[in-house]
Amino acid sequence: MRRKVVAGNWKMNMTPSEAVALVKELKPNMENSDVDVIFCVPSIDIVPVVEACKGTKISVGAENMYYEEKGAYTGEVSPQMLVDAGVSYVIIGHSERRQYFKEDNEMVNRKIRKAIEHDIIPIICCGETLEEREAGITLTLIKKQIVSALKYVSPENAQRCIIAYEPIWAIGTGRVATTQQAQEVCCSIRGIIRDIYGTQIADAIRILYGGSVNAGNALQLFSEPDIDGGLVGGASLKPEFSKIVNYQ
Ligand SMILES: O=C(CO)COP(=O)(O)O
């Protein structure tokens, strides 16, 4: 049985002091939940958020990472820095990074392999634009993203990764994918994993849905057979996040 995951992606929101206040507000309601809770936060918030989450079951994730170990890469954050700060997850290949920072499938793959090397679990994002959906190429595109993201990744390591299906047209728009649309793609992703790694890995890997998840739709989405939880943007910054984590 796969354990559900609810991860918040704070994006570029919350100053360090706001971040600590939000964690204090949310954490009492995270304790009795049956899911793995992850707060993925801006780099500058990592240290205070890790401190504020001490003694809870909440894990802290980063929203990005570079694939080099150290050196002259102004502005970047290395895997060792994340590990040393107490991070155990990292979002890789979010559509906003692909779109605004020109991250391509190859860079996404490099980052994933480097995260794994440092024992950081990558939350690997994939998803299509509205035009791509309307052109009927969603599944072809997702397959390309997943196959290239997991290139050179061993079965044991792939099993520990988390995949997040985030249709770009559903991100921050309030336009959530229907449960059928979300389930269909998550099921196909599991099929792609099965083709690469076999049934055992496919049955174990956790696949999330992201895109306008809120307290009102979480139960329905997370009840689908291939949806193992959510990657939540806007609603992760509000008290509503407690309801999503305790969706049952
Ligand atoms: O991009 C997302 C999570 O990574 C989804 O954002 P929203 O939940 O705000 O639509």
TrEMBL record:
Family annotation (Gene3D superfamilies): Aldolase class I (3.20.20.70)
Primary subcellular site in the record, as a coarse category: cytoplasm
Catalytic activity: D-glyceraldehyde 3-phosphate = dihydroxyacetone phosphate
Binding sites annotated in the UniProt record for substrate: N9, W10, K11, G172, S212, G233, G234
InterPro entries associated with the record: Aldolase_TIM, TIM_sf, TrioseP_Isoase_bac/euk, Triosephosphate_isomerase, Triosephosphate_isomerase_AS
Oligomeric and partner information: Homodimer.
Record protein name field: Triosephosphate isomerase
Organism whose genome encodes this protein: Lachnospira intestinalis
Lineage: Bacteria, Bacillati, Bacillota, Clostridia, Lachnospirales
